[in-house]
Design a protein that fits this description.
Blueprint (H helix, E strand, L loop, with lengths): L1 H22 L2 E5 L5 E5 L8 H35 L3 H10 L3 H13 L2
Antiparallel strand pairs: 1-2
Helix pairs in contact: 2-3, 2-4
Keywords: Membrane, Transmembrane, Transmembrane helix
Length: 114
C-alpha cells in the first residue's frame, strides 16, 4: 500500500508542477497521433537583452560625444567634481569615468571632425 501511495504522491507533485508552469502561459500543439497537448510557454525576461544592449550603446555614445567635445582633461575634471558629491553622484562618476572604449571612439571621432 505504501508503494501505491508514494506513486500517487509523485504523480500529484508532477501534476502540480505542470499546472504551475501552465498558469504562466501555454500553447496548444497537436501531436502526430492527433492529440492536442498544452505545452508551457517560456517565461520572457522582464528586460530583453536587446533593450539592455541599446542602453549600453547609448551610454557609450553619450560618453564618447562628451569626451570629444570637452577633451580628456576637461572631462576628467567634471568627473572628479562629480565624484566629490553624494553617493548617487559618486555612482554616476564611476559610470562616467573614462574607459578605453570611449577614449578610442572619441579619438576616432575627433579625427573625423575638423
Amino acid at each position: 500500500m505504501t508503494g501505491k501511495q508514494l506513486e500517487f504522491d509523485q504523480r500529484v507533485n508532477r501534476l502540480s508542477k505542470k499546472h504551475a508552469k501552465l498558469s504562466r502561459g501555454y500553447r496548444a500543439t497537436m501531436r502526430k497521433d492527433g492529440l492536442v497537448v498544452m505545452k508551457p510557454q517560456r517565461v520572457k525576461s522582464a528586460l530583453p537583452l536587446k533593450v539592455l544592449m541599446m542602453c549600453l550603446l547609448g551610454l557609450f555614445a553619450f560618453k564618447t560625444l562628451l569626451l570629444t567635445s570637452l577633451g580628456p582633461s576637461g572631462y576628467q575634471y567634471r568627473v572628479d567634481a562629480l565624484n566629490e558629491g553624494t553617493s548617487v553622484e559618486q555612482a554616476g562618476a564611476w559610470v562616467m569615468q573614462i574607459d578605453p572604449v570611449s577614449l578610442m571612439l572619441s579619438e576616432q571621432l575627433a579625427r573625423l571632425l575638423p
